[in-house]
Amino acid sequence: LISEDSEHIRLNGIGTSYLVNASPNTPVDFFLILIPVADQSGPVEITITVDDGSGTETSEASRSFILNVTPGNDAPVIDGVPSTTEVDDIPAQTTKESTATSAISFSVSDKEGGLIKVTATSDDPNLVPDSSIKLSGTDSNGDLNLSIGGTATLNMTITPVTGKSGDAKITVTAEDSEDTTTSFFMLTVTSVNDAPVIDAIEP
User: Fold this and answer.
1) Reported pTM
2) d(C-alpha 55, C-alpha 71), whole Å
3) Across residues 104-113, what is the average pLDDT?
4) To 10 degrees, the CA torsion angle through 66, 58, 30, 67?
5) What's residue 174's pLDDT?
6) Using an 8 Å Cβ cutoff, are 182 and 173 in contact?
7) Per-residue DSSP letter, 15
8) How far apart are CA 161 and CA 132, in angstroms?
9) Which of 85, 134, 149, 189 is deepest in the core (most CB within 10 A)?
10) Phi, psi dihedral angles at 116 (to 5 degrees)
């Protein structure tokens, strides 16, 4: 839980031991920094020992206390990359004008499990309105109910506005009760040639 090294235990901010030149009957103040190992929680006994170096039976004195490390929340993970900032994690996608994309697969997981809200939005509503982004794998509210350490695979399809082409940034967000993870990708809608139009010919 707390390794016995200077990365996790620091007396006076330095390391696991500290040498001081103390005057007789004069208290010396110390401060102790304890850094738990990542993703570990629970109680741990910490013992502080003072040794005056005399080598006698009374050269040492020790005091112990219990440190309780409480578990913290881990942010959801989108497609294997945990982050609280935008990450270009889902590959760029391309579709033709007026044509829906094929299914875009990605995964969402959470170490603690529970209810995860997943949303997808577009930065260009004239090309890709949010309503044209469809997620499958969530309920009607966009929620996932994950078991502890569980992972869910979702599929997304995007239908651009008819006759429009260009680029849109699609942002996918996974949110648990405390943290939010965001990933984005670029969607390119390529233009297609439109057939000529002949107006009605009067007889």
Assistant:
1) 0.68
2) 42
3) 91
4) 0
5) 94
6) yes
7) B
8) 8
9) 189
10) -120, 125
